Amino acid sequence: MKCEKCHQACHKTVGNYKYTESGLENVLLKNIPIYKCGCGHTIIEIPAFMQLHAVIARVIVRKPTTLSGEEIRFLRKAIHKSSKELASLLGVTPVTVTRWEKGYNRINPAYEKILKTVVYTSFDGKVKNTIAVLEEIRKAEQKQTSKNVSSPLSFIARKAQLSYRYAQAG
Ligand SMILES: [Zn+2]
């Protein structure tokens, strides 16, 4: 691998990378190829990019807690919709979508369920599986106490690593 800046050969290492480019705060990709150049430039190689995003989206959908703004934005991008398109799909204004994504307003639970349904079905393809997932989420919501809220994003990080290993093995 040649450096994009100075065109020298880079030194390859394997390490962990906080994947903030995903728009999510805590997705840690473990043991991915990292190329370091003597000039200080670093190139990251993300294997199975599309699969990784699909896995992260599925994990976000399964969250029993309300979606954060950054998670809503991630899901919208995962299904390749603009704010305007998502707004029209849900029957809200584009401003409403923007306010959810920026964290000014919490998403209404009914819209959240529609969004989760659309996203999960678009990755899984089977409505009956989506219904099973929504049931699972409902049960998890009932079990949840305010004390016992695990960080959904560390959960995502664990899943992302699993996906990475899965992609590597395959
Ligand atoms: Zn360089």
Description:
The protein has about 170 residues and is mainly alpha-helical. It has 2 domains: about 10-45, no CATH class; about 50-170, lambda repressor-like DNA-binding domains (434 Repressor (Amino-terminal Domain)), CATH 1.10.260.40. It contains 7 helices and 3 strands. Strand 2 (about 30-35) and strand 3 (about 40-45) form a beta hairpin. Helix 1 runs antiparallel to helix 5 (about 110-125). The two termini are about 25 Å apart. Bound molecules: zinc ion. Zinc ion (ZN) binds near residues 3, 37 and 41.
DSSP summary, beta strand count: 3
Return the CATH class of the largest domain.
Answer: Mainly Alpha
Helical percentage: 40-55%
- At CATH level 2, the architecture of the largest domain is Orthogonal Bundle
Order of helices and strands: EEEHHHHHHH
User: In percent, how much strand structure appears in the residues?
Assistant: 5-15%
Distance between the termini: 23 Å
Main sheet makeup: 3 strands, antiparallel
CATH topology-level fold name of the largest domain: 434 Repressor (Amino-terminal Domain)
Sequence-ordered SSE layout with sheet pairings:
Layout (H helix, E strand, L loop, with lengths): L10 E8 L9 E9 L5 E3 L4 H13 L7 H10 L4 H8 L3 H8 L7 H16 L2 H17 L8 H18 L1
Antiparallel strand pairs: 1-2, 2-3
Helix pairs in contact: 1-2, 1-5, 1-7, 3-4, 5-6
The structure holds zinc ion.
The site of zinc ion has 7 residues, from loops.
